[in-house]
Amino acid sequence: MVPPRRIAHLDMDAFFASVELLRYPELRGLPVVVGGGSRHQPVLQPDGTRRFSKLRDYAGRGVVTTSTYEARALGVFSAMGTMKAAALAPEAILLPTDFESYKRYSRLFKAAVAEIVPDIEDRGIDEIYLDLTDHPEETRALGMRLKEAVKAATGLTCSIGIAPNKLLAKISSDLDKPDGLTIVSLEDVPARIWPLSAKKINGIGPKAYAKLTSLGIETVGQLAQADPKLLQEHFGLNSAEWLHRVAHGHDEREVVTRSDPKGVSRETTFERDLHAKHDRDTLSEIFTRLCTRLSEDLHRKRYAGRTVGIKLRYADFRTVTRDVTLPSPTADAAMIRRAAGECLRRVPLEQRLRLLGVRVSALVPLDEAERYRAGEQGELFPG
Ligand code: TTP
Ligand code: MG
Ligand code: MG
Fold first, then answer.
1. Which CATH number is 29's domain given?
2. What residues does Mg(2+) bind to (predicted)?
3. Measuring from atom 22 of ligand 1, which residue has the nearest CA?
4. What confidence tier does 134 reach under pLDDT thresholds 50, 70, 90?
5. CA 174 to ligand 2 center in whole angstroms
6. Can 138 be counted among the known catalytic residues?
7. What mean pLDDT, rounded, does the chain reach?
8. Domain total for the chain?
């Protein structure tokens, strides 16, 4: 028999809100909602304290991106209309959304995990899957070490689920949030997974769940016990089989790591549209920073690339790209900046710009690129 796998799902706790609390520690313990705009930026007052916007001051059609657990206790959750949230929690603090910071912390926590388990399946800004099967360390100790590494690198807590497959790992990471570490085996499925709502299963969306409830099926356990014929009638053969399998905790999907990316890119949407001439300095600074970050990404991923490209989006949302291929692969910020600058000179710049991106592709492993350069300089010996 093949021994069971050990798959981990790691998800950051109240991610965007927790990043905000790092810079506004005075908000700890309060209901805080992320989802405002720049007009909700806290204002530093003469006495050194900050004045924050409150939800009750909000007017508009925006939605909540996330909320602290204190705000959730008042009924305020992701994707809820902010006006509706304001009715539930008028005194909650409202903060603007700052994706750049969240992306920075996202990279930080993933890099910290990669020090311990290099093969990561990236599932978006605040979550990853890991295959721990071949790792020598005992499961709970390893889980604790991952959590500590994330905390040390970011100051943030996460929750981890470890199980024989992705399906159960994902459900488990949510069982003891925040700051949880939940280990679930196949034997635990009846006791720990069956009482849960069927919508906890990744892949059962609101529509499928509504259909299930109309058939009298609400929990995973009820789904596991459901008559296969009934499910087939309503969902078709394939989906019915899948529903049956997942309800019993079975899932064969592999953890897919992106160890061989086609290209690495960075882009930024400006806070206001910029003009190539009038905002020359700002634009140039942003451009250089993008290239520096991209170079850092390449070094971290240990890649260099021969093709450097740019992407521009104009104020009217038209997008253009240009690229140039270099004589040898590079990961160097200044070389990327120079090549990207060359591309920029080949696009019309009369209109204002809303987005700028830089990309390096035709990748080779960084040490290969370094050997190549050494060879060019006559430092490499054959063999
Ligand atoms: P989640 O991991 O779903 O939520 P969370 O990290 O805020 O809270 P939890 O402790 O329950 O994991 O999403 C991660 C981030 O993605 C979240 O901080 C904000 C963003 N997000 C949205 O912008 N819109 C949404 O509808 C959801 C669910 C999340
Ligand atoms: Mg999260
Ligand atoms: Mg998440």
1. 3.40.1170.60
2. 11, 126
3. 65
4. confident
5. 9
6. no
7. 92
8. 4
List the structure tokens of 75: 């009924």
* End position of a domain, from candidates 188, 221, 239: 188
Same domain, 302 and 368: yes
pLDDT band at 188 (very low <50, low <70, confident <90, very high): very high
201 and 156 within one domain? no
Cβ(156) – ligand 1 distance below 6 Å: no
User: What distance in angstroms lies between residue 378's CA and the mean position of ligand 3's atoms?
Assistant: 50
Task: Say whether both 302 and 241 belong to one domain.
Answer: no
What residue numbers bound the domain in which 38 lies? 15-98
Pocket residue to mutate for ligand 1, from 9, 15, 97, 127, most atoms within 8 A of Cβ: 15
**Over the stretch 83-113, which tens digit does the pLDDT of each residue have?**
999 999 999 999 999 999 999 999 999 999 9
**pLDDT for residue 50:** 97
Last residue of a domain, one of 159, 188, 217: 188
* Residue ID of nearest Cα to ligand 1 atom 28: 78
Question: pLDDT tens for residues 143-154?
Answer: 999 999 999 999
281 is in an annotated binding site: no
